[in-house]
Known about the structure:
The structure holds three protein chains of three kinds.
Chain A: H1 2-22, H2 26-50, H3 57-87
Helix pairs in contact in A: 1-2, 2-3
Chain B: H1 8-29, H2 33-53, H3 57-81, H4 94-117, H5 132-142, H6 145-166, H7 171-176, H8 182-200
Chain C: H1 3-6, H2 10-25, H3 30-56, E1 63-73, E2 76-84, H4 86-109, H5 116-135, H6 139-157, H7 164-194, H8 202-210, H9 219-237, H10 245-248, H11 254-263, H12 267-275, H13 277-281, H14 284-306, H15 311-331, H16 335-363, H17 379-393, H18 399-414, H19 416-441, H20 457-472, H21 483-488, H22 500-526, H23 533-537, H24 539-546, H25 551-599, H26 604-628
Antiparallel strand pairs in C: 1-2
Amino acid sequence: MLPSYLTMAAILFCIGLYGALVKRNAVVVLLSVELMLNAVNLNLIVFSKYGVAPSLTGQVFSLFTITVAAAEAAVGVAILIALFRAKGTVNVDEYDEMRR
Amino acid sequence: MFNIEFNGEFAAFFIFSTIIVCGAVLMISLQKVVHMVISMAGVFLGLAGMFVLLEAEFVAFVQVLIYAGAVSILMIFGIMMTNHQDAGGEKVLPLHEGLAAIGALALFGLLFYAIRTTDFPDPLPFQGGEENTMKIGQLLYTGYIVPFELLSILLTVAFIGSIAIARRLPEKINGASGGDNAGIGGGPAGPTAQLQTKEAE
Amino acid sequence: MEFYTQSAWLIPIFPLAAFLLLIALGRSYRTTAMLLGSAGSLAAFVLSLLVLFERLGPDAVDYSIRSFKWIVIGDYTLRLGFEVTNLTSLMLVVITGVSLAVNVYSAGYMKNDERLTVFYGYVALFTFSMIGLVLADNILLLYIFWELVGVCSFLLIGFWYARPSARAAAKKAFIVTRIGDAGLLLAILLLFWYMPGHALDFTSIYNVFHEGQSGVMTSGITTFIALLILLGAIGKSGQFPLHVWLPDAMEGPTPISALIHAATMVAAGVFLLARTFDIVSASEAAMQTTAYIGGFTAIFAATIALAQNDIKRILAYSTVSQLGYMVMAIGLGSVSGGIFHLFTHAFFKALLFLGAGSIIHAVHTQDIREMGGLGAKMKTTAWTFAIGALALSGIPPFSGFWSKDAILTTALDENPVLFVVGLAAAFCTALYMSRLFFLVFAGKPRSGHAAVKESAAVMTIPMIILAALSVVAGFIETPWNGWLSGWLSGSEAVETVHGGSSIAAMVASIGVGALGIYLGWLFFVKKSIGSGFMAAKLPSLLRAVERGYYIDEWYRVIIVKPLRGLGSTLAVFDEYVIGGTVRMTGALTTAAGRFAARLSNGKVQTYGLAALIGCIVLIAVIVGRRFWS
């Protein structure tokens, strides 16, 4: 079963990556990033059961990841709101401050 | 090729993976942002089911609570706070999107190739399904106590920081300095007014 | 005590210091420059004389000091040093003496030239290099100074670089002598490779080749090295077939023609042969080649000189011819004969060039057909020039007679064919010198040079001194007094008895010399035989001789044209293949830059996409390695 789960995680990760690279709406980009993080979580949990040395460590690490992801989501949305106040848009094409 | 025996776990896996992939694809392809968030919540729930399948009940609960609950709600708030109407009117960049699609597919190809060619040894039997929550708790408070406490600090800092970033700036800072703040100060005035008018509607 | 010999390293320091001061001074200090340059060569001359007098003592041994470590490679150490032998000290006196005379003379000849200080600087640098060349104790150091001398020659030939002909002559001299230099360099490399212990100093060379350590080097290699050294000498001393640069080198200022292209630098080739005589004499084939090249050059250049009309070109071909004598003497095994002729020739040829300079200074032309009747107006020049011409023609008791006679005696003993050739060349020498002298100084003025007057004392005094030397310099070696050859070879002065051959050679030599002068007198003074006699009979031969047997033209057809063709082919290749590649690289870089500039649009997603593609390429390369390795 292990390869199936891993393939599943890879599919999820690649969809998230595509969304993060292509989507114009900043909220959707954030969502895509969450998708990628979830794919990683899935990998951690799969290896905690089907890995060479199964243990609960993978689950603990996935808990940490979820926590960090939650914090990331909160900070991301906050930055998004601040950016929206400054620029009046959530279109990531308009966020080209790095060019200057 | 896949040489998988067709049992109950596989059936469940198949159902959950269908939910997840459909939700992810819908999230990418839907037009309205709110719909996207809802299909995202579906993905999160499907993942939680898959976690249960992998004997990680506590992580599944946390997944439902934090992702399907908190993060989705946070995103909806984010959408509400910003201008969610312009999600449809995206201009198309075919080269960029094509390259991104090729890149993502190539990455998947590489990962798939790696997964298929790796010879995974047979795992030892996994125990800890019954008292999952208690064992995780014991682990967290023994071996991982320092990261756990650090995470609590991280969460506190992140939430305070988020509030600090996202709160509306006091009016006096907005109007106080003229020259160099004009560009920045001028920005918030428009959307705020827009937001207020929309709330009024 | 050999105090002066041990301080011989000071001799090149004086001209070097003069050179450094002169280039530091700038162009405005004209009088200072003259004094400084002359003082430098005077100091060097005095010290050289002291060294020579010390060497004349009965117990003089060769002195060499090699204290300075130059290059250390592993166990091998290349040392630099100087060596004073009898040959060296004689050359030192010749070089510094002629250099002093030329320095003084130039004060008059060049006094109106704008770049006078530069000129004196070059002359000082040349004097330094030439002294260094003579003093060098190993062949590599000699080569360094050899090249420095070549550079000075190049600079001074092209001194009036505003004239296209001077530029062309300078380039020609540099490129043609380069062929010889390459030969010498190859010889040095071969010596380095085959010598025991990679020794390059002359003492080791002497030991290896002279003591009969025949096992060290095969005769083939020895011949090869000797021929390459000969090639170096041919290039520097203007021997056939590399003589073409020397007549063109007369584009330089006349004092330079006297110093470099008559007395000293061109003699460096002969000096090199004398210095490495141990190597050359170890190979019979190389000796034969040397002798025949010398003999052929002597007669060949002498016939060309017959038909020239430019006073300096006549003297230039005469120099080539006389250098041929010296090379021939060395090839016949008579180093002392070659060096003796070098010694006397330096004085009378420098004198002739200075006289020619004096004439050119007065009449502002170099064409002897436009001169005439100058003898009455320029008495000093005429008398000194006559002495030089008689010395060159080999009329006793002038110095040229004794040295030429020494060579011809050797030739008669060793190789009768070369004796005849030498005799013919001597006849031609006498003929062209009388033609030159009578056309310039006798008869009536052929064009209006009303304001001709004798040159200033600063120019005539060096000429008088050189004339005196030209008279007496020959008596250091006569058939009855073999002092020079004994001194040079380091043994006690032995009474060389040539017997009948000497008398025969002397009689023949005087005979052809007198005959040549008499014929010249008939042609150009008495006009009993019309000067157009030859031109009427054999116009094509005359033209061929006048053009130097079309050697330059042959070079143009055989070497320059094919090289040009190859060059233009390569130029096309360069333009379209290499240039195209370069331009394509440039265009590619520009395009990549434009692409990268478009890529850096400040949007995170673009950057992320680029990072993704980069990652995939990296992973693909790493993973793909297992398939193609």
